Amino acid sequence: MEQCISGTTTLLCLFGSPVGHSGSPAMYNFSFRHDGIDCAYLCFDVKEEEMEDSVKAARLFHMRGFNLTMPCKTITAKLVDELSPAARIVGAVNTVVNEGGRLIGYMTDGAGFVRNLRENGVDVKGKNLVVAGAGGAATAIQVECALSGAAGISVFNRQSPSFERALSTAEKLKAEAPACAVKVMDLEDKEAFQAEIAAADILVNATSVGMKPGEDGTIVEDTGVFRPDLVVADIVYNPRKTRLMREAKAFGCEKVIGGEGMLLWQGAVNYKLFTGLDMPVDEYRRYQNAHR
Ligand code: NAP
What we know:
Blueprint: E1 10-16, H1 24-35, E2 39-45, H2 51-60, E3 65-68, H3 73-77, E4 82-83, H4 85-90, E5 95-99, E6 102-106, H5 109-119, E7 128-132, H6 136-147, E8 152-157, H7 161-176, E9 181-186, H8 190-198, E10 202-205, E11 231-234, H9 243-250, E12 256-257, H10 260-275, H11 281-290
Parallel strand pairs: 1-2, 1-3, 4-6, 7-8, 7-10, 8-9, 10-11, 11-12
Antiparallel strand pairs: 3-5, 5-6
Helix pairs in contact: 5-6, 5-10, 6-7
Residues 109, 112, 133-138, 157-158, 160, 162, 187, 207-209, 211, 235-237, 259, 262-263, 266 line the site of NADP nicotinamide-adenine-dinucleotide phosphate.
């Protein structure tokens, strides 16, 4: 598979800071090459205050689209022409597609999460979830699960500005996804946390607890909550197997799902938006494994 950048190559990119660690160029450029698409994907290290100029540049250079990482997701939602339902509720975008000069903003973190669950045989429709966390990724997950037909979501966060944000998201979801019952509770209330997990189908860690260098951390102190039919999903992908995942498996959970797949499927959702094609996920996985 050879790639040649030519006079007609269309640019896509990631904006944010830092971006040097990003796996996105490898994934998208592999896929463009695989599918024979004349596009190239780069990373640009830009700060929030540089996003207005960056979006202008994207328009000027007729870029097909771009992704956003921290700290540029919220400001960019105010700079595009239209927002997807999830992006509108979350108030942030991680993907923008240029449709003939009109910039459409999407929030696909949650879609990547839902798709990863589906690829692992779990449909969120009609399910009750406990989601620990109310930061950027957690909010996107809550919104997408509600829009995808979850029966109920119990959000747990410690008392902080994120807690207030979770209350405001829950209010918005009352109007946008009224069939989904959303509750917001204090993560310090261990009794409530255990009771909600006992009544749930899926437990999600959407906090950064358990992420390197804090890999000894877990949101579940009492391993008694684990049971065979409780699906446990961790969105942390570094390490690939978190303490929560290891303990859930050891204490009987049959389905334990890690964060790496969410990252990959979010990329696949974006690839579809950019190109209209299904990303060559299996081929990219093989390539990734061969180059680990
Ligand atoms: P974020 O916006 O900073 O949110 C972090 C969340 O974790 C907040 O709810 C925060 O609560 C909570 N938290 C942090 N430390 C905690 C602690 N010691 N005890 C309890 N809660 C704690 O970050 P994010 O972007 O949502 O990312 C969260 C994690 O998801 C990171 O590990 C990130 O790498 C991972 N992630 C994975 C994917 C994927 O595709 N798999 C995508 C995005 C993010 P407070 O606000 O109260 O501090």
